Amino acid sequence: MTATPAVSACPFHGSDRARQFDPFGPEYQTDPAAALRWSREQEPVFYSEVLGYWVVSRYDDIKAIFRDNITFSPAIALEKITPPTPESLEVLKSYGFDLRRTLVNEDEPVHMERRRALLDAFAPDAAAAHAPMVRDLVRARVDAMAAKGEADLVQSLLWEVPFLVALHFLGIPAADHDTLRRYAVAHTLNSWGRPTPEQQVGIAHSMGQFWQYADEVLTRMKADPTGRGWMYDMIAANRADPEVVTDNYLHSMMLAVIVAAHETTALAGANMMQRLLADRAAWNELCRTPALIPNAVEECLRHSGSVVAWRRIATRDAAVGGVTIPAGGKILMVVASGNHDPRKFENPDALDLWRDNTAEHLTFGYGSHQCMGKNIGRMELRIILEELTRRLPHMELVPQDFTYLPNTSFRGAERVLVRWDPALNPAPRPERDFVMGAPRRQDIARQLRVAAVTAEAEGVIGIRLDHPEGAPLPGWSPGSHIDLHLPGGLVRKYSLCGADGAWQIAVLREDAGRGGSRWLHDSLRAGDMLTVGGPRNLFRLDEDAPFHLLIAGGIGITPILAMADRLAQQGRDFAIHYAGGARGRMAFADRLARDHGARLTFWPGDAGRRMDLGAILAGAPPGAQICACGPERLLHALDALAGARPDCTLTVEHFAAAEGLLDPAKESPFAVELADSGLTLTVPADRTLLQTLLAAGIDVACDCEEGLCGSCEVAVLEGEIDHRDQVLSRAERGRGDRMMTCCSRARAGGRLRLG
Ligand code: HEM
Ligand code: FES
Q: Cβ(604)–Cβ(457) under 8 Å?
C-alpha cells in the first residue's frame, strides 16, 4: 500500500472562477460538463479550495493521468470526499467495518497481480454467456409494463436489471432489494457526497449493515464454494494464494463490486433513456436502425455518463497541462468534462449516434484500472435499448423535473417517467444480438446522398453531401475530415472544406492509386448514396495563436481553405501560401482569390515560382501557428526548417500515418507460430502482433492497446520477447512465457511460438 504523502506546496493561486467552483452546487449537479466549460477553455487544471482538490477538465490531461498510475496513484478513488465525523467513525467501528483496498484503489504491483488473477470472468466469451439471462430479465420487465401505458423506467427496469445481473455475475443469491438499494445510496453519499454530520451517522449505520450483510453472504458462500460466479473465483484465488487474495480482500471486494457493477450501470441506463427520449429524431432513428444501438450506448456513456468524475493522488511533483501538481496533491478528473472536450470530440455537446470515436470516452476510466466489467455493462445497456426500441418505440418522456443524488462522481436521474398508448404497441421487429466489446469504427457510418459533383480544377472534383431526408448534418471544425467507404473495401479520408458548414470535399484523381479516386471521378453521380464515417479532427487550429501561417501543397488546400474561412470570419490575422503544379490544376484558386485575396500568395510551378519555405517561415510573426497540408516532401521540408523557429508551432496533416502505432522504419517483421492451430503468421513492421492476430480471425481480448491494462496477454512457448508493456513484472519478463500482444514483439530477427 502506498502511503499518502503530504502536500508540499501552496497551491492557492487560481482565478476567481477556480475559487468559486463548487462541485456540490446546482451548476455542476445539473450538468458537470457545462459547469466546467470555462475551465476547458481557460484554465484546464486548477485548484479548488472548496474541495481541496486539483480539478482537471481536458480530455488529454485526464487520459495522461489515468495512463500513469504510478505518478498518479488511485489510492484515494473511494476515499470519503467529505471528511468523516468522529461520531460516524464510531458507528462504523461498532459494526466492525473495515473496508480496505479493492482493485480500483490499489497500487502496483499488487493491483495488476490481482487484476490478472481475476480477469477470466470478463473474457468476451465468459461475458457473452450472461447475455441470455440479461435478455430474460429485461423481457420479463418489459412484458410486465407493456400494457400499462406508463412507467418510471428506473423503478420498473433500469435499477433492478443491473442489480440482478451483478448478483448473478458474482454468484450471490438474490437478496433483499430495498435494503441493498439503501446501502447503495449510502455508499455513494459516503464516498462522493457532502452529507451533514447527522446524515453521516445514518449513512454509517447503512454502511455498517452493508458490511455485515456482505460478511454473512460470504460466510455462506465459503462454506459451500462449489457455486459459480466471480466471488467463487475469488474464493478459489483466496484458497490458492491467501497472500494475494486475502480474507479482508474478499470481504471488501464483495461490498465494492456490488456497487461497481450495479449502480454504475443502473445510472447509465437512466441517463441513456432520458437523453435518447429527449431527442426524438435520435430515438426514431434508433427504432428504425437497430444496428446503431451499440454506438448509441457508447454515445450516451460519453454524452451523459454515470461516472462523471474519478480521483487520483500525485505521488511526486508532476506537471499536468502545464501546471505542477505537488506531491500529495489530490486530483479530481472530471471525465464528463473530458468527454465534452472539443479537442477530442467534434460538436461535443451534440448527441451524434454516428460519432465514430465515441467509444474513446473516459466513462470507464482508462489504462491499467480501466473498468473490467465494461463489456458486461455495455451488453446490459444494449439489450435494454434493443427491447425498448423493439417493443415500445412510441414511448415518450412525461414532462418532469429530473433529480439527482448530490455528489461529485455518480450521476443518474432518480426517476425517468414515460408514457405510451398501449393500443398502439406494435408487433415487435425480430430480436437482435450484438458482438461483445466496443463497437467497431468501420461499422459506424452514415448513408448520405451526393447532392452535387462539380469540376473544381483540372483533375479535381468537388463532392457535396447531404442527408437523404434533408435533416441537418452535424457541424464540423476546420481541419476535420470524413471517411468515404468505397467499393472494394477501400476507406479514404477527405478534408471537409465547404463554406457555412456544408459537407463538401474535393478529390484529386490519382491514376497511380488503388482506385478510390478513379472510382469517384468516373462513377459517382449526383443522387448516389455514399457510406461516410466521421467527421473527426486530427488537424486543429489553435485559435489562441496570435497569427496563423497556412501552407498548402496541391490538394492539401482543402483543410487550409476551411481554416482560412474560419479565421477570416473571426477577423484574425493570417497568411496563405498555396503551391501547385499549375494554376489550372489548383482547386479553389478563384474562390481563394475572391475571399482571401489580400492574404494569399500563389506558387504555381509552371510559372517558375517555387515556394520559398525558408523565407516564408523566417517572416512568420513570433508565436505563430503554422498549419500545413500537402505532399510528404513538403511536410518533411517544413519539419526540417521549423527547428529554426522554436517560438512557432508546426501542425501538419499526415493522412497516411495519422493513427499509426509503430514507426515501420524502426521495427522488423517477425513470424509467429500458433501451437493450437499450427498456423504461422508474419507480423509486418507497421503492425502489432495483436492487429495481426485479429486480422487472422483469432480472438484476443484487448482494451487499451498501449501495454497498460493486461487484457491482451498470450502465453509464449518459445522465442525471445521484446517486452514493451507496463504490465509484467521484471521477474515475469525474465520467465519469457507470456507477452502483451498490443505492444510487445519478437526480438529482432526472432520468431515466437504462442500457446
Ligand atoms: C472500475 C465505470 C460497470 C467492475 C471502474 C472504473 C470506472 C468504472 C470509472 C475505474 C477505472 C479507472 O480507474 O481507470 C463503470 C461504468 C459501468 C461499469 C460506467 C457501467 C456502465 C461495471 C460492471 C462491473 C464492473 C458491470 C462488473 C461486472 C469493475 C471493476 C473495476 C471497475 C472490477 C476495477 C478495475 C481495476 O481497478 O483494475 N468501472 N463500470 N464495472 N469496474 Fe466498472
Ligand atoms: Fe491493454 Fe494490451 S495491455 S490491450
A: no
Q: Is residue 542 part of a domain?
A: no
Task: Classify residue 418: in a domain, yes or no.
Answer: no
Strand-pair partners of 465: 450, 503
Average pLDDT of the chain is: 89
Residue 157 is given by DSSP the state I
> Could you tell me if residue 413 is inside a domain?
no
Q: Are residues 339 and 250 in the same domain?
A: yes
Quick check: 660 and 688 in contact, CB under 8 A?
Answer: no
Answer whether 376 contacts ligand 1 (Cβ < 6 A): yes
Mutate to test the pocket of ligand 1, among 188, 364, 410 (most ligand atoms within 8 A of CB): 364
Q: Is the CB of 338 under 6 A from ligand 1?
A: no
The DSSP 8-state label assigned to residue 407 in this structure reads B
Q: Quick one: which ligand is closest to 252's CA?
A: 1
pTM given for the model: 0.85
Measured CA to CA, the distance from residue 423 to residue 403 in angstroms comes to 31
Domain of 640 in residue numbering reads as 548-653
Distance CA 333, CA 54 (A): 8
703 lines ligand 2 (CB under 6 A): yes
Give the CA diameter of the chain: 89
Alpha helices in 647-736 (DSSP H): 689-695, 730-735
**ipTM at complex level:** 0.96
The CATH code of the domain that includes 358 is 1.10.630.10
- Triad 573, 577, 578: Cα angle to 5°: 135
Kindly report, residue by residue over 619-671, the tens digit of the pLDDT.
Answer: 999 999 999 999 888 988 988 888 888 898 888 886 543 334 577 788 999 99
Q: Please tell me if the CB atom of residue 711 comes closer than 6 angstroms to any atom of ligand 2.
A: yes
Query: Is the CB of 411 within 6 Å of ligand 1?
Result: no
Rounded CA separation 457/425 (Å): 55
Q: How far is the CA of 365 from the centre of ligand 1 (A)?
A: 8
Q: For residue 1, tell me if it sits in a domain.
A: no
Question: Ligand 1: distance of its center to the CA of 364 in Å?
Answer: 6
Is 708 near ligand 2, meaning CB less than 6 Å away? Answer: yes
